[in-house]
Every structure is written in C-alpha cells, then in structure tokens.
Amino acid sequence: MSVTGLTVESPVVRLCGIGKRFLGNQVLRDVDLDLHAGEVHALVGENGAGKSTLMKVLAGVHQPDEGTIEVDGVRRTFASPREAQSAGISIVHQEFNLLGDRSVAENVHLGREPVRWGRVDRRRMEAETERLLDWLGERGISPRTQVRRLPVAQQQVVEIVKALATDARVLAMDEPTAALADHEVELLYDLVRRLRERNIAILYVSHRLREVFDLSQRITVLKDGELVTVRPTRELTSDQLVRHMVGRPLDAYFPDRARPADLGDVRLAVRGGGNARVHGIDLRLRAGEIVGLAGLQGAGRSAVARAVCGAEPFTEGTVELDGTPARIRSPRAAVRRGVAYVTEDRKGEGLALRQSVRDNALLVRRAAFGRGRGLRRLDLGELLRSVTLVARGPDQEVRLLSGGNQQKVVLAKWLAVEPKVLVVDEPTRGIDVGAKKAVYDLLRGLAGQGVAILLISSELPELIGMSDRVLVMYDGRIAGELPAGPSEEAVMALATGHALEAA
Amino acid sequence: MSVAVEPGVRPQWTRLGNPVAAVYGALVLLLVLGSVLVAMRGGVLLDQGGILNILTRSTALGLVAIGQTMVILTGKLDLSVAYLIGLCSLIGAETMAGDPGMILPAVLLTLACAAGVGLLNGLVVAKLKVNAFIATLGTALIIRGYLENGYTGPSGQVPRVFQHLGYDRIGPVPVSALLMLALAGLAWWFLARTRPGYHLYAVGGDEEVARFSGIRTDRVVITAHVLCSVAAGLAGLFLASRLGSGAPWVGTDAGYDLESIAAVVLGGTLLAGGRGGVAGTIGGVLILATLDTTFDELGVTPFFKDVVRGVVLIVAVALYARRRMRR
Amino acid sequence: MTTTDPASRPSRLPRLADGTAPVLAVLAVLLVALAFAGPAYSEPAGYLALLKRAAPLMILAIGQYFVIVSGGFDLSVGSLVTAEVVIAARLIDGDEAATLWVIPFVLGFGALVGLVNGLITTRLLVPSFIVTLGMLLVLDGAVFLWTGGSPRGALSEAFRTIGREGFDVPLLGQVPWSVLLLAALVAAAVLFMRGGTGRMLVAIGDNETAVRLGGGHVERLRTLAFVLSGLSAAVAAILLGGFAGVSAQVGDGLEFRVITAVVLGGVVLGGGRGSVVAAMAGALTLEALFSLLNLLGISGGLESAVQGVIIIAAVAYAASGRSVFRTRKGTS
C-alpha cells in the first residue's frame, strides 16, 4: 500500500470493526482504523462523533464491545492504559497529566523511575530525558526545570516526551493545540513532523481543519459513531472534508425564530472588547434575540462569555447595558446589572452538587442580591415548573438529578434574578434529547420575554437551528457574522480559518 | 556532578528547595539580630552554652518534624505524634529498666510499636478514606486514653549508658543533635534520591496524576505515616535518655504535634503537599529554637515567645503564598 | 409535560440533612442508657444538668460548624476561651459594676479574633489551619504576657450567674440560665442556616466557584464564619468562666474536642455537607458519652480512648457511604 510516497508494508496498529456502547447508547459502530509507522493519521468529526471514544479504545482506557485490535499483526486486548503502553501505544491527554512542582525529568519518568543501587538514577533519568528531547530536536528545555515554570507549549512537549518514554511507537494526541497560543502551534507542528520522521505513528484528533491538512497524510472521518470515509489527505479539499463531517439534515425540533418585529432595543453592546485571550470584540445583542457564537475549541468563545460576565473581564473596549456604559469588573457586578452566565462546566462551576434543588435555585438570588432586594417576590414552585424540572422535590440533592435536570436547575437559578442578558455556554452538553428540547423552548421563551441571549455551542445543528444570527470566532477574534440559518459549511469555513485562507 | 548551568536555569539546590535558601537566610538574619540584641545586654548568644542550647532544643522537635515532613508532603498530617512520643519514652524506659543489656531490645521494641501506630494511621487514612486530621486525632485520643489509664507520672528507668546519648557532646555540639542531623540527611536522601521518596512528592502533588502514572498511592501514604511515627518514636527515646525515665506527657507538654507542623510549614513545605523537604524543615526547627534561646538570653517571659512564634508562622506562610502566586 | 408536584409545597418540617440521622440515633441510645445507668437521670433535672455541662461545647460546635462547613478550620477557639476568661477576670477583678461593660467587651474581642483569622485566611491566602494555629500561639502567649504568668483577678457574681445559676420552672425544677441561652442560640443558628446567608456558607464549602460566578462575596462570607466562631468562643467562655471559675486551663484541648464533636455530627471536613443541628447533636453526644462512662465508673483514660475510636469509626462510616459518589478532585 502506498501512502503519500511512503511505502509501508503493514500497519503498526489495526482496529477492526470496533463497536462500543455506553449505557445502551451506541457511540461507535463497526469502525476500522489502521495506523502506519511514520504516518500522521487525522481523526476528524463533529462533537459526539466518537473520536475520543475511539482514541480511548486504542489507548486501553475503554474496552471495545465488538471488534479487534492488532499490534504488528498480533491480536491484543488492553485491560488498562498500562497494557496499551507496554504494547507501545501512548496517549497525550488534552488535560496535562503533569506535576507542576517536579522537574521535567521527574515527570517524564513518573512511576517508572530508574533505580541503581537503591537510589533513583537521576543522571540516567536526566540523560534519558535529554536524549528524548534531543531526538525530538527540542533544545530549549532543560530536564531539570520545574514543569510549572515552562510555558504551556513546552509543557505539552513534556507530556509528549512522557508518552514517548515508554518506548511508544504509536502516539494518540487529543486536540493537542487546544491549550496552545497561535505561535506555539507552529512549534507543535515541527514536533509532530519530527515524530513522524522518526517513524512514530500518530493518531491526531482535532477539530481544526487547517492543522489536519497541514500535518496529516490520511484522514478518517467519523460521524455519529460510524466511519464515513478514510482518504489520503491530498485527495481531499477542505470543502469536501467539511461536507463529509456535516451535511446531516437539521433536526426539526427547534422552536421558531424571532420575527424582526419581536426584536427590541440593544441590551448589550461591546465595542472593541479585548483581554489576554480575545481581541477586538464587537458585539450587540438586542432584546428578544438569540445570537449564536460559533467557533472551534480554543477560538475564544468561552473567553468572550467569561469577559462579558466579569469572570475574566475585558481590559480594553467599552461595554454598554441598555444603552448606559457599564464597568463590569467582577461576576458580582455583572450579575447585579442583569447579566447571567450559564457556564460550560455545569458541575465544576454551576452547581453546588451536594445542596438541594432549592438552595441551588436560590443561589444567585442569595449570593448577589441579599434577600432578593430589588427583585420581584419569588415563587419557587412556579420557577421550577417554568423550567419543567423533574425532581422528587425541592429538597432533593442536585447531584442525584440527571444531567438535563441539573441544567434546568442552573437555568432556574439565573431566572430567579430576572436577567436582561443571558449567556449560555454549551447548554445541552451531555443531556438527552428530551431535555435538549426543553432547554431550546425555554431559551426561545425567554427571548420572547425580552431577554437577549448569547448562545455558545459546538453542536452546529443546534447553534444554527436556534440562532437569529451567528457570529463565528477564529483565533480570539470574531471572524464573521452570518444571518439566520447559515449552512454548516459556511460556519465551518469561518471557524476553521478556511475562509481566511481562501480570501 | 557536572552541572552546566544554562542561562535562565538556576542551579539545582535553589530550585529544588525553593524557599530553603530563604529559610536559612532568615535563620542567619535571626542569629545576627539575636546576637546583637543579646550583646546589647552584655551577653553572648552564640557562645558554647548558646549553641548547645539551640541544638538541644532542636533535637527532639527536629526528629518529630522530619517525620511530619514526610506525611505533610503527601498532603496529610499527623496529630498523634505528641502522645506517641510520650508512649514511646515509656516503652523504652520500662523495657530497659536500668539494664544496659536491654537497650537494644528496648529500642527495637519501641520503634516497632511506633511503626505499628503509624501503620494504623496509614491504613485508616488510605484504606478507610478517613481524613488524616480525624484519623490521627482519633489515634492520639486512643493513645492518650492508654496513658491516662496507666500512668500518673514518670515511669521506667534508662541505664546510665543510654543517658550518654542525651548528654554527651563533642565541643558545643551534642551527639544527639548530630544523630538528628544524620537522620535528617537520611530523610533527605530518601526523599530526593529514592523511588518511594519520589512517589511521596507525586502523591502530594496530585494523587490522580500519581495514580494514572501507575503509582500505588495507598502504599505511599501508609509508608509516610509509618516513617512519621518511627521518627516520633526516636524522639521519645531521645527524651527518655534526657529525662532518665519515660514520661507520659513529655510530648504533649511541649506541644510537639502542632509545633512540628509549624516547623515543617515554616520550612517552606506546602501544607497541601507535593512541595518542600527536610532541609527546609530543619531550618524551621532551628529558627524556632533560636527564637526560644534568644528570648531566654534576653530574659523575656516565655509567653512572649508564643506570640512571636504565632506571628512568624502566619507571616512566613503568607509570604510563601505570595511568592507562589507571583510565579 | 411533567410537573414538580411536591416542589411547590414548602416543607414545614425541619429537614434532616443526610448524616444527621446516625448521630441522633446514637444520641437517643445514649440518653436512654443514661436513664438506666444513673438514678439522677430518672427526672428532668438530670438531663438539664447534662445540658448545662454540654452547653459550652454545643455553642462552640455552632461556631466551628460555620467555619468547617464553609471549608475551613478554627483551631484557635480553645485558647480564645482561655483568653476570654482570663481577660474577663482581670478586667472585672471582683467589681460587680464592671460586669456590664466587660461582657460586651468579651464578645467584641471574640469577634475581633475571628475577624483577624478570617481576613488573613481569605486575603493573604494562608490555609486556615495555619492561621488559626498561629492565632492559638499568639493568644496563649499574649494573654499570659499581659497577666504576667498566672490568671489574676476574679469574676463578679453577676458574670458567673449565667454559667452557674438557674431559674425555677414548675414541673422541670430549676432550669439553668445556660440552657436557656443555649436554646436561644440553637434557635438562632437554625434560623440562620435556613436563611440565605447560612445556605451561602454551605454552598461555598461545596462549590466556591459557583458562588463566585453567581455574584457572591466569597471572601466576606468566609470571614463571617470565622467571626461567628470567635463569638461562639466568647459565649462559651462566659459560660465556662461562670461554671468552672478562672483558670488558665479552662480552654485546653477544646479546639480538638469541638472539631471531634462537629465531625461526629456528620459534618464533613472540607465543607459543603452537614447541618448545624447535627453538629450540636455531636457535641451533646460526646458529653452524654462522657457522663455515661463516668456513671459506669470508667476512668478518664478510657474516656478519651473511646472518643478516639468513635470519631474514626464515625468518619470511616460516612466515607464508606460517600465514596460511591466521589468525583475527581480539583473541581473548585
């Protein structure tokens, strides 16, 4: 078989007919994948297409329900990541698995420190690390530096070296650029190319089409857990790739959009907003309007949300609420001026999981308004009914609720303070279809009552189906605005920087 | 070892125990300041007696604090050491009962008992998932119950030979202090050079990351607790040799539980674990001992020492927190 | 569409937070056992005496609960109690008229110490364990520095009345003032914890980020918890001073005893879980246990050993039930 000029006899790893179910949910169905030495194999697809699951099956984190894994032509099963590692397969996590207070060499050998005469052979550890760094052509990093002192890009290098230190021949990288700044991405490119030259097989999982085209030799596209196609990269254009990834009919359960007559005055206006993560943000939300904010992971969508809501405020530009200038320097300031923020990380930032439904629903009211001063009287039962919460009662602990109902509690806590502007970040992540529909209806209903809504979502059908306008972010800036009901291709083109290149 | 110091990469020792340099700097500053103050009142701080005083004070606390460092590095703590010291002094002195031939068996028995207590602490913390604060507080209360039940005052007798351990010295330096420093060296070697030591830091740094990297975190936690208790056992033996007998409340009267935690934290080890080391701890112990000795020389009432100690502790940790944030 | 049928009905019954039931069961068993073990407990007076003995610890437990449930520790309460008693004795020095201003002064001092603890913890980011440990040392030293080594002066009769005396109630016999005060504080604490501020404290211990993003003053509320803990120590000192008189050992070991009590009540170290009623029940359980052991003729030594075993067992029991729901650390 010939792959972009490389003649490879047999793959290092071959996955055949992989199927995987979670709680009766088929997340992978009959997927094949083979990786060759010295090849960067991109794995692309929308959120929920099954990329991470496939990668975790490869790395021994999950065990497949169907299908086989072959390494060098021999069938293997991996009960744990350790077993996959000993077969030469390592994974580079999106979240770093590093100890900040320990040195590079110590992290690289964590749990496998070489010992000589009863003591850790530091010289060997450092030499080995140095060797791996050299081998990768990374000269800027000393094995003795504390990991905490390294910039993120170099921490990523350490993470990669840690994976390589187990004599890995196959490296699975999960969104490796997600945490990196733009100039750091170039460094990663170099690194990946060098890994390739050194005959490592790389499975490169990414949303970003540019990276995929820059780096990979072959592309596997997944959709809804199934294999769409495997093609040599040079045979594909980015238009074609986008079409392979999306192109599913929009689901019909979105409520009707706002009519022009429903729209009111501008409630939130940001001019030239910027901070360390985003730049030149111009944003206008009108009463009754749902504005979608699209973009790939790391493009700055959440950073805009966090800035508007005071968690990481804008350091430049101006913000106006209902036509009057507003200085939003803290979440409290934002909340008290009527800006609500449904965070992406529901459990980590949104809910006090061990508290009751009641306490969570009243959390913002109590936190920011004392006893609800300046607000209307609240009927808790009415509030919970309005979000169609299904719970045993207001005393039930929130951690015992389903994801969908937890999200309804989050919405309830914000509705309790009658917001003017509602920023929702991935509001339907990890919740079932019925609850999604409820959330959609609720958001549209709120818009109908004059709330201005900024909707962030990685699920394009949802974003397109819900939004009256779509803003697309790329690299910390708003790359363009699209009217209601744009095609997924149009959004993806802006979000992947494809449109910029074409221009 | 040839260390090519690249620009931007600081040499090994300042990097490893970052606050260590600061701790010893503070110690030197304190010694100078103390000397000046004492000299103004016509005395000498660092004469033979002064040095002896500082080192003697440091020995028992140093022993406990070395052990406490291990536990704190894993992100736990041990509140049972004070009672354990009393218990161990009794076990040692009663087993010896004045017979020089019994010294070795007594020492071994004492350390075995201490290790047993440490094992209990470790198992309760690692296996039953009880917060270390509660687990070791519980152990402390159990030991206290045993002591209250069986003892009203000193008991047992150590042979004269064993007392030499507590009183012999070379010049102004007590032999016991040298032994304590040797143990500190050993502990440093353990932490900085052996695999279990590395894993101690890993568990304290992030237990999840350690587990994902294949480290058996439970064992690491248990090891730390056993080592801590053994160190407390050694402190008990040392105090028995000083006193000539075992004393049930010798550990609690000096408040070695909280005091040792204070010394460790003062030495720059993070209470949450994963960062710090024995070198800083010894610095912290010496600082506390120097403060005490200086105030004694100045004839300040003992109560003032506590005030200064409390303030020093809070200020030091606030400074560490600030340093860490800036990075 | 699904509705939330019972959701609209506000519950009138005080809710039992989980972890409360076991301690109440243990407490009930102990109280019954007391009745069998000692003739004094065949009538209300015996139990009133128990409550009177337990009142200081229960009040301290209220204060400590606020700190623990919001994610901290307060190790300074023991020495604060001692300090307050010694200060009060020195200031009053037997002068009845001084009582009137010394009591507010004592309360104010407690609040001030709590304020300092809270500010250092929240503003300088020093772990509360260290801050309150430092405060413990400072208080221990400073008070005796000021009094010159041993407590001097004496408390006035008026001052001691609250801790020592009582008033007559038909049927019950003499009800100690301290029990009345305790009842008032319990009611206040329960009301406080049902109100917005109280719920916020628990929410902070559970998920600080959620409260901050919700617009809450996290630092201010955590500081408030320390202030309340300081106040509770002041009240406990007034009762203990009256009950036991002036001594330099009056607060010894109280910090660990009160943390034991709170944890025994099912309140989880690290915050976010447990109720104030359970914390007080934990304190009462501890005192009832001591009384029972006394009645059974078990000496002081076994008393603390039993205490040690119980606290480990209680927390291990709670941990075994909770581990099912453990989430990855570092969410907040």
Walkthrough of the structure:
The complex is a heterotrimer of chains A (503), B (327) and C (332). Helices cover 33% and strands 25% of the residues of chain A. With 503 residues, chain A is α/β, with parallel strands linked by helices. In chain A, a hairpin with a 2-residue loop joins strand 1 and strand 2. Chain B has 327 residues and is mostly helical. Chain B has helices at 12-16, 18-40, 48-73, 81-96, 103-126, 132-150, 160-167, 175-193, 195-205, 207-212, 217-243, 250-253, 256-266, 278-298, 302-326; strands at residues 169-170, 173-174. Residues 1-17 of chain B have low confidence and may be disordered. In chain C, 69% of the residues lie in helices and 2% in strands. Chain C has helices at residues 20-37, 44-69, 77-92, 99-123, 128-147, 157-164, 177-194, 196-206, 208-213, 218-244, 254-264, 276-295, 300-322; strands at residues 166-169, 173-176. A two-stranded antiparallel sheet of chain C has the order 1-2. Chain C starts with 19 loop residues before the first helix and ends in a 10-residue tail after the last helix. The model of chain C is unreliable at 1-15 and 323-332 (pLDDT under 50). Classes of the chains: A alpha/beta (503), B mainly alpha (327), C mainly alpha (332). Chains in contact: A-B, A-C, B-C. At the B-C interface, helix 6, helix 13 and helix 15 of B face helix 5, helix 11 and helix 13 of C.
Indicate the CATH class of the largest domain in chain A.
Alpha Beta
Order the strands across the largest sheet of chain A as they lie in space. 8-11-12-5-13-14
Give a short account of the largest sheet of chain C. 2 strands, antiparallel
- What is the succession of H and E elements of chain C? HHHHHHEEHHHHHHH
Query: In percent terms, what proportion of residues of chain A is strand?
Result: 25-35%
Protein name (chain B): Autoinducer 2 import system permease protein LsrD
GO molecular function (chain B): transmembrane transporter activity
Pfam families (chain B): BPD_transp_2 (PF02653)
Transmembrane segments (chain B): 20-39, 51-73, 103-124, 130-147, 170-191, 220-240, 303-321
